[in-house]
């Protein structure tokens, strides 16, 4: 009973825990990966005369002149049809990574990615939003025996076990992809067809120095995300992906539906003996919570337009709970007086609409965490926050029931006199 006085402080403690965990820097790229429908990737081994299973320099070798790498004649060692394609655009993109490409009619694009190679793997990913999760990638490597391998991968999650081989969204043509080692450089060549003309496309580049085992990639040693303009043949290395926007969207949603709005509802239910303090606290907290919920939806809409996200359930529930919140705000201005008969119906409407909004708001946060492939820290902290709110409600409900039992007088019975 003595600890119950500290219950109102618990949400503030939980909020600090939430902000510390959610605002820590996270790594969005674990290994290159592709998408959900399986692709029948044709794999062909190609080895050059210089193939000894490794190169002589590192991937980030500073002594390599990137401008000179585009002058290498790839027609002498790449297999056809990659060796006889003329007019390819060549652009240095990152460290020693060089991207060559040639666009044809019907949105058919031939890619040749090269980089200085020692051991491990090299990959290029195509992303919708600049994030690794959900992207499709082509990854090439040479195993310990010196055999060349190239496969498409789909990154289902951030863990290496979630990087799925022979799956992805890249629509590869019937021309077999190839991987070739020429001198210190590894070359990945493949053709893919796109739904629309490639213009500005988020590209993910990564490499690992450990050999893949049973087609399972190791954690990358380094990675980057660029925004490549296939119309101009240039890359923007400072590509600002929407990862921070996703994080802000999640923080606002958790702060609104996981803390402020539930606390405002708790105040209305269990502090009515502090009249009129409870009313001003309830109205103030709920209004601030509504502003955070509104900002969550606005930021989510911007995020939806930016990355063209396909999460209709999360988006629809978000709009639904925002509509309920607007109705609750309107109910505040249309609040009838206590002595009016319609007041009991208003109380019923206001209470149950609020409960429905809180339930679906909390559910939507869970859906958002899942859809955004958030880390375990988000799940643990939000679960802890919701658990704290529920435990607080249960304790206050029990105390309220005990108080009502103590203050309610027993019913009196009037005895009929004996005549």
Automatic annotation (TrEMBL):
Residues in DOMON domain copies: 95-208
Keywords for this protein: Electron transport, Membrane, Signal, Transmembrane, Transmembrane helix, Transport
Transmembrane stretches, start-end: 108-126, 251-271, 277-304, 316-334, 346-369, 381-403
Principal subcellular localization: membrane
Chain residue ranges for the region called Disordered: 34-58
Pfam families, alphabetized: DOMON
The Cytochrome b561 domain, residue ranges: 211-405
Superkingdom of origin: Eukaryota
InterPro entries referenced in this protein's UniProt entry, alphabetically: Cyt_b561/ferric_Rdtase_TM, DOH_DOMON, DOMON_domain
Localization, UniProt: Membrane
Signal sequence interval, chain numbering: 1-30
Coiled coil: none
Name of this protein: Cytochrome b561 domain-containing protein
Lineage of producing organism: Eukaryota, Viridiplantae, Streptophyta, Embryophyta, Tracheophyta
């Amino acid at each position: 009973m003595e600890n119950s006085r500290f219950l109102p402080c618990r949400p503030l403690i939980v909020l600090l825990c939430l902000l510390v965990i959610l605002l820590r820097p996270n790594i969005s790229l674990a290994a290159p990966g592709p998408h959900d429908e399986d692709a029948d990737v044709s794999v062909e081994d190609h080895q050059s005369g210089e193939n000894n299973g490794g190169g002589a320099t590192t991937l980030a070798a500073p002594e390599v002149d990137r401008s000179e790498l585009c002058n290498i004649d790839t027609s002498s060692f790449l297999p056809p049809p990659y060796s006889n394609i003329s007019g390819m655009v060549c652009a240095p993109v990152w460290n020693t990574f060089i991207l060559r490409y040639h666009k044809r009619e019907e949105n058919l694009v031939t890619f040749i990615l090269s980089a200085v190679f020692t051991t491990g793997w090299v990959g290029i990913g195509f992303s919708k939003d600049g994030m690794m999760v959900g992207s499709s990638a082509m990854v090439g490597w040479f195993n310990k025996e010196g055999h060349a391998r190239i496969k498409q991968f789909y990154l289902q999650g951030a863990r290496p076990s979630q990087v799925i081989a022979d799956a992805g969204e890249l629509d590869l043509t019937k021309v077999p992809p190839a991987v070739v080692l020429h001198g210190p450089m590894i070359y990945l060549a493949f053709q893919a067809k796109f739904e629309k003309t490639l213009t500005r496309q988020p590209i993910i580049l990564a490499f690992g120095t450990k050999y893949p085992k049973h087609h399972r990639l190791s954690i990358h040693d380094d990675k980057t995300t660029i925004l490549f303009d296939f119309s101009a043949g240039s890359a923007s290395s400072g590509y600002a992906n929407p990862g921070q926007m996703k994080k802000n969207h999640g923080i606002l949603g958790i702060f609104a539906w996981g803390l402020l709005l539930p606390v405002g509802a708790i105040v209305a239910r269990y502090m009515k003996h502090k009249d009129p303090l409870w009313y001003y606290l309830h109205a103030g907290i709920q209004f601030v919570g509504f502003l955070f919920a509104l900002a969550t939806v606005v930021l989510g809409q911007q995020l939806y337009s930016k990355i063209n996200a396909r999460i209709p359930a999360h988006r629809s529930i978000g709009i639904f709970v925002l509509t309920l919140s607007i109705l609750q705000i309107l109910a505040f201005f249309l609040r009838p007086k206590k002595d009016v008969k319609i007041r009991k119906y208003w109380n019923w409407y206001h209470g149950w609409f609020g409960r429905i909004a809180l339930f679906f708001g909390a559910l939507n946060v869970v859906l958002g965490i899942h859809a955004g492939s958030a880390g375990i820290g988000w799940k643990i902290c939000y679960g802890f926050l919701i658990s704290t709110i529920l435990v607080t409600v249960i304790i206050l409900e029990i105390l309220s029931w005990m108080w009502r039992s103590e203050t309610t007088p027993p019913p009196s019975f009037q005895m009929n006199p004996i005549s």
